[in-house]
Write a structure and sequence with these properties.
alpha+beta; plasmid; 9 helices
């Protein structure tokens, strides 16, 4: 089924929040899912997969232990691409100074790529991400993709390396709508449903409407 990018962003934001992410990180996850979907990637499928993998797991367990380390790693030995990506964007200047930042054991690394778009816009220079069999580069508006579908959609990258500045070759332009699998949409909807407050007897009565009031 086809959805507008606005619909994808709205659903992704509520689903990420329902999965336990802060509103700020949920917003970033939603923007990233929209960004990937705009470039033809199954953003909703990847987000749904990540939310299922990390469901009920404290964020600290899948966050980088230190942003100053030579290689970033997480206590759980698997890192959230959303948390790591947001940290990368915050460390954009450090990325340019070092030339590269390396992360270990990152789940669904493609979900970290939109964050390097933000880093590229901050730096005014393209940023690249590489893992086994895949390389992507972006200036924040355009995206260059190299690698097989299998490599790009890998469930886990043992080493994910970001570098700047980067070369832009084979550019892709974004689109306005994206195809979304029904299964991934339903999974996101289940997470999103957690954000709804449970009904109380009072709210149910209010929702029942004027049938309970006597205006005679």
């Amino acid at each position: 089924m086809s959805h507008s990018l606005n619909e994808i962003e709205a659903m992704s934001k509520r689903a990420a929040r329902g999965a336990g992410l802060s509103w700020g990180l949920a917003e970033e996850a939603a923007k990233g899912t929209r960004w990937l979907s705009a470039f033809g990637f199954p953003g909703t499928e990847m987000l749904a997969e990540l939310l299922n993998i990390n469901d009920r797991i404290p964020s600290i367990d899948v966050s980088p232990v230190s942003l100053r380390a030579e290689v970033w790693h997480a206590p759980a030995r698997r890192m959230s691409p959303l948390i790591a990506g947001a940290a990368l964007s915050d460390c954009a200047v450090r990325l340019l100074e070092r030339g590269k930042i390396t992360m270990e054991h990152v789940n669904i690394p493609l979900l970290a790529v939109p964050f390097m778009g933000g880093a590229a816009l901050r730096l005014g220079r393209p940023v690249a991400a590489e893992w086994d069999g895949a390389r992507l580069a972006t200036d924040g508006k355009r995206l260059c993709v190299q690698g097989s579908i299998e490599a790009l959609r890998t469930h886990k990258a043992d080493r994910l390396v970001f570098s700047a500045p980067a070369d832009m070759t084979g550019q892709q332009e974004p689109v306005m709508r994206a195809d979304v699998s029904e299964e991934s949409w339903e999974q996101l909807a289940k997470f999103a449903h957690r954000t709804f407050a449970p009904a109380t007897e009072e709210s149910r009565l209010r929702g029942a409407g004027a049938g309970l009031s006597d205006n005679d």
